[in-house]
Amino acid sequence: MKTIIATILIGTAVFSNAQIIMGDAIGTTSVKTSVLLEFAPNQNKGIILPYVRTLPSTPVEGTLVLDATDATKARIKYYNGAWTDLSGQDANITTALATQPTEAQVTEALGEKVIIGAPSSTANGVMVLESSTKSMVLPIVADVQNIPSPSPGMMVYINKAGAKRLAVFNGSKWSFWKP
């Protein structure tokens, strides 16, 4: 039942080009007009990137994945014309990867994806945000130490005085990106 309701809500948002706010206050869309997808702050939760056993051969710029081509050397990667490692260190995610479906187990229809912000997209991804004027706001946490059980591929924004930065978890260690 929850899946049906979520599908209806996302479908409605996609066709109306509306904003989706997950777990945040109601009625904030009027003041957050540049946001397509937003998560409630200070929930000590993050967004989990897709685990891939083979890096996409023709990704679009802006693609983010947990590269599990070698489960003992997993790294979070970003594509911007070439793959860039955001982890800076290997992680052994063999145990976590065992719970993820293999390509043989997934019966994914060609082009199957959730698109937010546009009626269609040529980008190949599980969730695609399409907008030339709006963005995604990552889940905001005060400190990654407050996240009870981070999952491999987790990504959050740390909003801490003197330490505001992007944090990615490769399954072993957090890596931090600061402007």
Could you list some keywords that capture this structure?
disordered N terminus; globular; mainly beta; 4-stranded mixed sheet
Protein described:
The protein has 179 residues and is mainly β. Helix content is 11%, strand content 27%. The N terminus is likely disordered.
Q: Which value, in Å, is the CA radius of gyration?
A: 17 Å
In terms of DSSP E residues, the strand content is 25-35%
Q: Could you give the count of β-strands?
A: 14
- What summary fits the major beta sheet? 5 strands, mixed
Query: Given the helix and strand composition, which structural class is it?
Result: mainly beta
Q: Kindly report how far apart the N and C termini lie.
A: 42 Å
- What is the element string, with H for helices and E for strands? HEEEEEEEHEEEEEEE
Low-confidence runs: 1-17
Q: What is the global morphology?
A: globular
Say what oligomer this is.
single chain
Helix content: 10-25%
The pLDDT mean sits at: 81
